[in-house]
Amino acid sequence: MSDKISIAIGSDHAGFEYKELLRAFLSAYEVKDFGTYSAESADYPDFAHPVASAVEAGEFTLGILVCGSANGVAITANKHQGIRAAICWTEEIAELARLHNNANVLCIPARFVSTDAAKAITEKFIATPFEGGRHAVRVGKMSC
Question: Is the pLDDT of residue 139 over 90?
Fold first, then answer.
């Protein structure tokens, strides 16, 4: 793990426990927690938008969002033009999201993966560089 990578992280109530676990797991990085700060009911856009905005503005290298299914945070983050948020539930999907899609926000479905899997998925996502080449052309066509 490199300390040159900075990470914006956020979750709703369903992802709070995993967010806290991942924040501790990522102690070798600069990590900013955009909330939520408890397991009390919270609306995922209130955390997904600030994380996506911070990554889009270049304030952070990558983002991590966690909610129950990861759908809500992914849909919200992908409203931002410079964001490529990917729902990842295996290490292989996380690797491909980075390699082929240059994903810059990892979305974890807390209700569907174990805490160990969440850590492994996160580690794979961070460690995998974008492959570029023919994939860069495709990624370039994503913007509206």
Answer: no
pLDDT tens digits, 55-78: 999 999 999 999 999 999 999 999
Which listed residue (13, 49, 100, 135) is catalytic?
100
80 is catalytic: no
Q: Average the pLDDT over 103-107 and give the result.
A: 98
Burial class (CB in 10 A: 0-12, 13-18, 19+), 99: middle
- What are the tokens at 106? 């990892």
Query: Which member of 67, 80, 88, 107 is catalytic?
Result: 67
In this prediction, residues 84-95 reach a mean pLDDT of 98
Q: 64 exposed, middle or buried (CB, 10 Å; 0-12, 13-18, 19+)?
A: buried
Say whether 100 is catalytic. yes
